[in-house]
Amino acid sequence: xxxxxxxxxxxxxxxxxxxxxxxxxxxxxxxxxxxxxxxxxxxxxxxxxxxxxxxxxxxxxxxxxxxxxxxxxxxxxxxxxxxxxxxxxxxxxxxxxxxxxxxxxxxxxxxxx
Length: 113
Fold this sequence. Notes:
This protein has helices at 53-57, 92-112; strands at 29-34, 42-47, 65-71, 74-81. By secondary structure, the chain is of the alpha+beta class. It has one domain.
C-alpha cells in the first residue's frame, strides 16, 4: 500500500531493529528425488529447512559443523566446531586506493632516506 507522504522529500522509512525470534513451528516439505527406472521415476523425500537470525543468536553460526542425532520423531542439532570468521570483503576500489597510498608512502620514505 502506497502512502501519500512516501513521495515527500523528508520521508524516511522507520528504522526497524532486526529481531531474532524462533519459528514456533515448521512444516516438513517434500522434494522429488530421481531414482532408478525399475523403482519408478522419482521418489518423494521429506526435508526440513531452518533459517533465521535466531539460529545465529543460539550459536549456529554460518559455516559451523553440526552433529545430528536422530531418533523416531526427534532431531537434535549440536554445534561441534565453530566456524572460522570470514573477513569482510573490501571493495576493489578501496583495495586499489590502499595499494596506491602504500606505494606513495613507500616512495616518500625512500626519498627522505
